[in-house]
Design goal:
single chain, 289 residues, alpha/beta, Pyruvate Kinase, Chain: A, domain 1, 11% strand
Length: 289
């Protein structure tokens, strides 16, 4: 058994660790609230746009707009992986990287070439270490992504898709469901696929389009791609802070448990030491008697 002094040093060390993890938990909680507010503010716009588009017959315009055209044969795919710049958030990044690697394995098995684009230091560093070639890596997007940053990424992929450099675009990101759940998700961004609504019994909305539908779609379709990527950036940012908060909460709880166990061991060691000292004193007094 370690002596009382060694145990006391370990208790002090775990106490300092607990202070750090507790502070990081509070910081993550504050940032999570801000990122959640931005995500919830952006969702109504995306949902309303989805509702309107699902009420419009896009098939009749697919030939006129490249973003709606599905390629007969997919020769090259684009894969966008959104991770974080910092760690200490549990298995958040590991789950995203695992899903991205699974998708790349599927593309290889299907004989489809792919090009990899990564947002976040953790994803780019890990995949480079594993030997993957990364075409672009962005590490300048912080805790609060802007729409302009999402639009920049979208513009690059729109240009590649229109020119035929890629035939489709898949995006791997963290889907923010709630504070306790941020599973890795994959979404096909290009070509644009809008699900048709299931024709309920209620009244269906009718839209008067001015100017023509073609002119509206010409401006609207790129905005949809931008909005989907921006929303994924927001969801990943909110998921990162939620995952970090949970990880730091668990670390704080573990530190408290270790301190409790070490305190018990310290008391036992101290009691044994005092008992030994008393026995030595009694033995010495008896020897002198």
């Amino acid at each position: 058994m370690a002596n009382a002094r060694e145990i006391e040093k370990r208790i002090t060390s775990f106490g300092k660790t607990k202070q750090i993890t507790r502070t990081m938990e509070l910081v993550a909680t504050s940032r999570m609230k801000k990122t959640q507010d931005r995500l919830f503010a952006a969702k109504p716009y995306a949902e309303k746009m989805q509702d309107i588009l699902s009420s419009v017959n896009l098939e009749e315009h697919s030939e006129a707009f490249p973003l709606l055209q599905s390629r007969e044969k997919v020769c090259r795919s684009g894969l966008l992986l959104i991770t974080t710049n910092r760690g200490l958030c549990g298995g958040f990044n590991a789950n995203l990287i695992r899903l991205a690697r699974q998708k790349m394995d599927e593309l290889k098995a299907a004989g489809t070439e792919f090009e990899l684009h990564v947002v976040g230091k953790k994803g780019s560093n890990a995949l480079r270490y594993l030997g993957y070639e990364i075409v672009t890596a962005r590490t300048d997007i912080g805790d609060y992504p802007s729409y302009e940053e999402g639009a920049e990424i979208a513009a690059m992929f729109i240009e590649k898709f229109v020119k035929g450099t890629i035939d489709e675009l898949h995006m791997v990101y963290a889907e923010f469901r709630n504070v306790a759940s941020q599973p890795a998700a994959i979404e096909t961004v290009l070509p644009l696929q809008v699900e048709e609504e299931g024709g309920g019994d209620g009244p269906q909305a009718e839209f008067i389009l001015e100017p023509s539908p073609a002119e509206i779609l010409e401006n609207l379709l790129p905005r949809i791609v931008e909005n989907r990527i921006f929303k994924a950036l927001l969801e990943s940012a909110a998921g990162e802070q939620a995952a970090r908060r949970v990880a730091m909460k668990n670390a704080t709880d573990n530190a408290e448990e270790l301190i409790r166990l070490l305190t018990r061991s310290y008391n036992r060691a101290r009691q044994a030491q005092i008992t030994q000292e008393l026995a030595e004193i009694v033995g010495g007094a008896e020897a002198l008697a």
